[in-house]
Here is the input.
Amino acid sequence: MKDEEGKFTLQTSDFQEFWSLDPGVTFLNHGSFGACPKAVLAVQQKLRSQLEIEPIRFFGREWEPLLDHARNQLAEFVGADSQDLVFVNNATTGVNSVLRSLSFCAEDEILTTNHEYNACRNALDFIASRTGARIVIAQIPFPIDSPQQVIAAVMERVSPQTRLALLDHITSQTGLIFPIQQLVQQLQQLGVDILIDGAHAPGMIALSLREIGATYYTGNCHKWLCAPKGAAFLYVQRDKQSQIRPLTISHGANSPRTDKTRFQLEFDWTGTDDPTAYMCIPDAIAFMGSLLRGGWSELRQRNHQLVLEARQVLCQALGVLPPCPEEMIGSMAVIPLPAAWDNRHFLAVHDELFDNFGIQVQVVPWYESPRLLVRISAQIYNTPEQYVYLATALSKLQNC
Here is the structure.
């Protein structure tokens, strides 16, 4: 699989020309950090030049209309009212902004699951250490047979002391789509507020924040929406917005303006930074939606179908069963490695795949058997042949 110069070669999709990704790498890990198309990066560079040519004019006159336009376009894409959205750098910042804004006491419980993203679990532990609140963990099985197991596991751990539930929409480690709308409905009936970590959801699945109805929702735009790095949003229900403050308190805290809510005034300006990633969101939405005749709907379905086919190839090659039903998968799928891999370190497996085969794929440690998981992503620049190649590489490593 190497050419005369020693680089890995494998046929890729015609769509790869729209990205800057190294053609010598079989890139199957869009889910970790995304990948921004060249056309969208060009828009960002133009905006950066616009900023640097006349910084005072940019921040004094041009910045806010550009930010508001991006917010309006994003709100339409995620099914929300624009006045309920603010921009943050990433979903972890969104989660922290909510958790750090709320007041907890020793009698309170915060409910989450054993699939929660590590960074956000650390944020929960920090809050618990400062306030005495108790973190309650719903144990969701993996492998899993049905979304109903998620609902049952979460609702079983609700108590009269449950103040907030922090739930992933799509889990990072296991790639599962949780039945968020049903969970929100049932939790709200018990008076529990819900913070959804939707890091992977925008662009991977159709999204309507109005229909979901969560109290708080945060999502990344740099992953499946393919905006530049540093673009994410935080949604807060209108009656809760006065309580939620950015991690950095700045000029918005005492602004005399009345044309915007304090919520947006505070989050929109937390100090001098580069806001161009936010401003490129409309271009990312338009570009990705233009790649296939059926727009975003066809793109999501295409990626979903590709990852299902890839999962089947890998499961057959490794002699394992699919660990979840197809309805719980979007554009990422996790394949458990057989027990023979349990004594290997996940970083070592990752490095072997990259160094020996030129494959970039996520290898995930899991706290119970199976101990190692391989998480594949499917984006429009990927092809079925790339997953066959991954299956071949894993089979070779398994037999070493």
